[in-house]
């Protein structure tokens, strides 16, 4: 028999709305994230991406619509959902007073995992992130790439089914970005579902199975990167080169700068 969980979307949002001061920052979006895929959210600043992620995690209550994550209604069962989700925030919020290993031990305690239980898991995660030689190092001594890798594996300490990443490689040099990308590809190959936001079009093209482009709180397009470029090609004939995802992004979201 087919496991019902395997056919249930990782995320299903229908008519999702969030307002602040009477303004809809998320304006009736529909999203379906399939199990085992890497799904990207693109959009200019203020498009509603981070607010959408906060609603998925049960941190911000929606003002309208319906939302289920890993088969559970959110925000009704947000606590249960968060126990099955890993989060990589936009800014690293590691404890500077702790070592690499101590950061992971402390975070594991939030999920009720004992030191003895989590020891082998931490060893495996440190090896996965190529931080096994820095386990006793304190956070301020790490490079930016190392801190980002530590933040990533911290999000895996509870063995999550879904990993949510808010701009996972922002500010990293090309070598560090490539390392993060390799680890994200490995997570997807292991069957985890990934949702990420990014401002790097090459990151979206290389990592994501499908993308939703948001603008002014709405989803203006959703498909594979290749299909999005192909669909926009007719409107981009003025280009003197093949169109790419950045061209599509600018075509759909406009060229005006926003706060």
Plain-language structure description:
This protein has helices at 4-7, 49-56, 78-82, 100-109, 115-128, 144-154, 174-189, 201-207, 225-232, 245-253; strands at 11-20, 23-33, 38-42, 64-69, 72-73, 85-88, 162-166, 193-197, 210-215, 218-223. With 259 residues, the protein is of the alpha/beta class. It has a domain at 1-84 and 195-254: P-loop containing nucleotide triphosphate hydrolases (Rossmann fold, 3-Layer(aba) Sandwich). It has a 6-stranded mixed beta sheet with strand order 6-7-8-3-9-10, sandwiched between helices. Helix 4 (100-109) packs across helix 5, helix 6 runs parallel beside helix 7 and helix 9 packs across helix 10. The model has no long low-confidence stretch (mean pLDDT 91).
List keywords for this structure.
single chain, 259 residues, alpha/beta, Rossmann fold, six-stranded mixed sheet, four-stranded antiparallel sheet
> Remind me, CATH topology of one domain?
Rossmann fold
CATH superfamily heading of one domain? P-loop containing nucleotide triphosphate hydrolases
The largest sheet is: 6 strands, mixed
Order of H and E elements:
HEEEHEEHEHHHEHEHEEHH
Q: What is the CA-atom radius of gyration, in angstroms? A: 19 Å
| N-to-C CA distance | 51 Å
CATH architecture annotation of one domain:
3-Layer(aba) Sandwich
- Overall geometry: globular
Q: Average pLDDT across residues?
A: 91
Find the count of extended strands (DSSP E, 2+ residues): 10
Helical content stands at: 25-40%
Strand arrangement, largest sheet?
6-7-8-3-9-10
Overall CATH class of one domain = Alpha Beta
Strand proportion = 15-25%
Low-pLDDT segments: none
